[in-house]
Amino acid sequence: MKKGMLFFLGVLVVFAVFAAWTTDSFAYNRYIDGCDGCHGAFRSGTTSTKPGNTWPTNKHDVHRNQMLAGVCEACHTGTPNSGSTFTGSSDGNGSLPGLGCIGCHGNDYGGIVGVSGAGLRKHHAGKGVTVCASCHTGDPTPLPESNNPPYYGKAGVNITNALNTDGKENYTSDGLGLDNDGDLLYDQLAGPPPASFDVTKPAAGESVPTGAPYAVTWTAADGAASYKVKVSIDGGVTWSTLATSVNDTTTSWDVPNTIKKNISNAIIKVIAYDSSGGKLGAKKSGTFSVDVLTITAPAAAEVVPQNAPYTITWTANGTAVPPDQLVVKYTLNNGRTWKTAQGTPNLGASSFSWNVPAVSKTKTKARVKVVLKAAGVTVAKAVTAKFTVQ
Q1: Is 277 exposed, middle or buried (0-12, 13-18, 19+ CB in 10 A)?
Q2: How far, in Å, CA of 114 to CA of 23, rounded?
Q3: Closest CA to 169 of 34, 35, 53
Q4: Is 213 in a helix, a strand, or coil?
Q5: In terms of domains, do 205 and 299 share one?
Q6: What mean pLDDT value characterizes the chain?
Q7: Residue 45: what pLDDT?
Q8: In the chain, what's the furthest Cα-to-Cα distance?
Q9: 4 part of a folded domain
Q10: Domain of 266?
Q11: Does the structure show a pLDDT above 60 at 173?
């Protein structure tokens, strides 16, 4: 007899734990289990001012008739007027999943049990409520305020936008909707966190043209009063100063026009100082290139037909003096030997019609070199990556 009774009681405990686990997305399974302690009775009259606002009529009627178009099954289970309401479940209907309070006061986070009210729990924690913390330690980061809860905008629900852009989320005297993401910024998105001190331009892999001003930028360092900016064109082996005593987060770099060939491993360094001249720290950019001449065709790994005309093209940036002569060479063996390309130059159009030679077999290590000269002196040159002639 005792064993049978113990078994029966054990089944009841397991069932109760399971029921709580499947519905417990808030601190309480039902509004009347504890929510009313701060927010007042759900059927309280217009005198209810908890937690700091006034309802035009009791909360039940506002929810049923104004927030919802009389859709009782959005909140209730069983007979609509039975009082069976749960924070995490309801009957639902063809338009609304059976989520109960969570349908408007949370997000489903892919249906993960127990985390649906993460944003509202964070809001309560921000207000000093600690009852949730012991049970909900694994909440995800709440979704942004612009992510609508599952019920919003569905048939039978009059609330359409969690950011309250149309005012439909406001049913109390404070003019605000819910703080869905728990950041205590009602009906608005939190701005991005302050950026840490870093160089933002030039970006890693960026191409900076010669012979023109270029805006170097960085994010502010905490406590910084001024900055020094340096540049290296040899991967950080040697440095030259671009600017000192800069009290902004940008400076203009006059990129030299005397550079004759592309530099592939340039780096910018910004050093921050406090008001007393003490060094706070330094940040470097990623490696970028400084380009005087960029050959745009042929491209890397391109297949160029043999024994036929092919148009070589390039883009030239600032040079010390305007070029007046063009030299184009090619190699079929990755640069071991170079030959002068035969064809028709068009310096003004930055192009050269190359008479591609005939080859007895496919050449996969071909390259082209373009040299710009002024009065016989080289002012810019570049070499392509490997391509194929066949």
Answers
A1: exposed
A2: 8
A3: 53
A4: strand
A5: no
A6: 87
A7: 63
A8: 113
A9: no
A10: 199-291
A11: yes
Instruction: For the chain, give the percent of residues with pLDDT over 90.
Output: 53
- Same-domain check for residues 75 and 185: yes
Q: What pLDDT, on a 0 to 100 scale, did the predictor assign at position 280? A: 96
Residue 2 lies in a domain: no
Strand order in the sheet with 213-218: 199-201, 213-218, 250-254
Same domain (yes/no): 133, 268: no
Same domain, 230 and 248: yes
Q: Of 16-30, 156-170, 183-197, 275-289, which gets the smallest average pLDDT?
A: 16-30
Residue 10's pLDDT is what?
40
**Tokens of residue 89, six digits:** 């479940």
The identity of residue 100, as a single letter, is: G
389: amino acid identity, one letter = V
* Residue 67: DSSP 8-state: I
pLDDT band of 12, cuts 50, 70, 90: very low
Whether residue 142 is contained in a domain is answered as: yes
- Which of the listed residues 241, 262, 291 is the one where a domain comes to its end? 291
Token readout for 25 is 């997305």
257 is a domain residue: yes
Q: Which of 285, 281, 317 is nearest to 215 (CA)?
A: 285
Q: In a 10 Å sphere around its CB, with 0-12 CB exposed, 13-18 middle and 19+ buried, how is residue 333 labelled?
A: exposed
DSSP for 74-140 reads GTB-SSGGG--B-SS-----SSS-S-TTHHHHS--GGG-TT-TTHHHHHHHHHTT--TTTTT---PP
Number of domains in the chain: 3
Alpha carbon 80 to chain centroid, angstroms? 44
pLDDT tens digits for 16-63? 333 333 344 456 788 888 787 788 888 766 555 666 677 777 888 889
Task: Tell me: do 161 and 31 sit in the same domain.
Answer: yes
Q: Specify the pLDDT at position 18.
A: 36
